[in-house]
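User: Hey, quick favor. My workstation is busy. Could you predict this chain's structure for me?
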Amino acid sequence: MKNKFGNKTVSSVSIIGEDGPTSVFIVGRSNSKRTLKQNIHKFLYDVRKKRIVKSLKANPHSMEQVANYIITELGFSEVDKSESEYKTEYFQMRASFIMQYKPELLGDLAEAPKLENHEEETIKLFMAQIEQRQKAAEGIPPDIFDIDLHIYEKNDGKIQSKIIIEKNYGYIGGSASGLKNGSMKKFDKIFRKVYQYYGVTQKDIDNNTKRYIELVKTLAKR
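Assistant: No problem, here it is.
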């Protein structure tokens, strides 16, 4: 992230959370106009989305089956829960799930802070409130609220891939890094396979549930 909170060119703050429970903050200039390239990508995305919606059939699998698929079919290995990598991800994600699904456990901090304007001091205060809420969520004991988190990794020499699933709430996420061109495209293909295998029920399709929306969105991305 090139822009810093102290930079006077900062003009907007956005929160991206639709792909998972963990919020990502992006600070930069507001620009509502799309470039020609962005318009083309949006058009192609909409075309793929319509095709997927038309052809998608109910073929659901449980999170247990998804976990097994990631290991046996995709060649990933599960990260041991005693490793520091797992513990860090667990604490951060558990806090995020608390804020998303059980905010009442945070008492006075139950309501998420709102950004009133884009002034530098307001942004700093907003970020401080976010951090305070995060720490409060991390302080909730696991016997009051817990998650069933599993992390899977694979390193084929060209790309390091990580897939995360949370079985209680049906969350699937992931990331990748690599030195070769096309690394992210390769991972995106793997990630789409996981989501496609997870699938949806006919009830999901009929009721346009979050599971259905996330599947369509993930499969439409390229």
